[in-house]
Amino acid sequence: MNDRTRVRLTVNGHAEQVEVEPRAILADVLRDNLGLTGTHLACEHGVCGACTVLIDGEAARSCLVFAVQAEGASITTVEGIAPDGGLSPVQEAMRDCHGLQCGFCTPGIVVSMTAYLNTHPNPSDADLKEAMSGNLCRCTGYQGILAAARQAADRMNASS
Amino acid sequence: MKPSQFQHHAPERVDEVVALLAEYGDDAKVLAGGQSLIPIMALRMATYPHLVDIARVPDLSKISATPNAVRVGAMVRQSHAERDAAVATVPLLAKALPHIGHFQIRNRGTVGGSIAHADPASELPAVALALDARIEATGPGGVRFIDASEFFLSTWQTALDDGEILSAVEFPVWGAGSGFGVEEIARRKGDFALVGALAGVTLDGDRVTRACITMIGVGSTPVRCHEAEAALIAGGANADLNEIGRIAAAPLTPTHDVHASAAYRKHVSPAIVRRALTAALKEARS
To answer: pLDDT tens digit string along B36-54?
Structure first.
């Protein structure tokens, strides 16, 4: 039962292969096996959104996915969101608008916001509020996060 | 918390799924999207020595339309269903889907998984019950259909036999002149509804020729409000919807929990039903 299973993943564009227990959740494999500690784990049961990553381009909570379920999938973590050495429009907006204080929830916020804006180019403020409702933040009171989402949406729209 | 150890099985055909369930019996659990099952395992509310992962069974991820129904395979992701043209012909389903969790959850969660999980505050079991959907169960003896009205037995309990898998759900398509509404009260968007109502009507002028009202969060299963439906059909499109709401709420015996008292759930129920019916009637008239 402790048998390890080989799982092949493409993570931030790199082919990876890990040997993990079936019960290993994707978030732990990203952090512990692949050293990608940008993905944060808080609640570990799907409530807080800190561990959000893209699985084949779609945002998902990596605490609610066993790594074995992601066999063959392409994963993007917060480390893979930005171009080399730079900041993505979402990350720039989070900095400009004070969308973070302690920063613990920020990786999940950035990944969720990126996924949403990639597929919703012209969101209303109400849309953004709903889109970000799956990520908990205990510092900011959310206003900075929503301001960042607004700025990122407008800039991504203007540049597309 | 981390889930306890299990063996992962990833069959590629439905008969292989059924064979694995037969082999491991009570020690096996079907894993679809995992958005309810993995939290339960992470919190150690349940442990399963064997998980049968159905994500690699192509036959379970299909949506097909017939003139009178839309068949949604068990493994169809909720976000996929949200974007599907055939699902759009079942407006109650299409309207209910965005109420489930958050978009990150719907990217993984499945239609069949939610219905098989049978949480009494979930939207999709209520859609199935409201529309008289047929649950397709596949087991060692082949395929059988279970009426939604006989499927939900209690919290997390269904009429599936040991060794059976929910393989698809057939949602009936209602005809022209129909409208639907989904209304919920929740403390935060994406939370489980404290109380919710799903309603559908078909109008012929001011006559209501067909009605369904189902409530969630008010019992151990989704609750179909037959008396209120009959009252609406008798009263027609201009019936007093507050009264219909009161009739729907009268027999309910919701429970108290940390999120809301039983009295509060009972108190808001008529208003939620009224709102769902108002939306359904408005859509039916348009």
So the answer is: 999 999 999 999 999 999 9
> Cβ contacts (< 8 Å) between A116 and chain B: which residues?
103
Look up the pTM and report it. 0.96
Q: How many domains does chain B have?
A: 3
Is B180 buried (19+), middle (13-18) or exposed (0-12) by CB count in 10 A? Answer: buried
Domain hosting residue B16, numbered range: 7-53
CA dihedral B148, B80, B76, A73 (to 10 degrees): -160
Helix (H, G, I), strand (E, B) or coil at B76: coil
Mean pLDDT of B73-81: 98
The first and second tokens of residue A83, run together, are: 């171009």
What ipTM, to 2 d.p.?
Answer: 0.96
Q: A 43-62 residues with CB below 8 A of B?
A: 44-46, 49, 52, 55, 58-61
Asked if B38 lies within 8 A of A134 by C-beta distance, the reply is no
**A73 and A51 within one domain:** yes
CATH at A57: 3.10.20.30
- Whether residue B150 sits in one domain with residue B85: yes
- The answer on A45 and A66 residing in a single domain is yes
Domain end point (choices B38, B53, B68): B53
pLDDT-derived band at A2, boundaries 50, 70, 90: low
* Chain A residues lying within 8 Å of B38, measured CB to CB: 25, 45-46, 63-66
Q: Which of residues 64-123 of A touch B (CB under 8 A)?
A: 64-66, 68-69, 71, 112, 115-116
Under the banding of pLDDT at 50, 70 and 90, the label for residue B97 is: very high
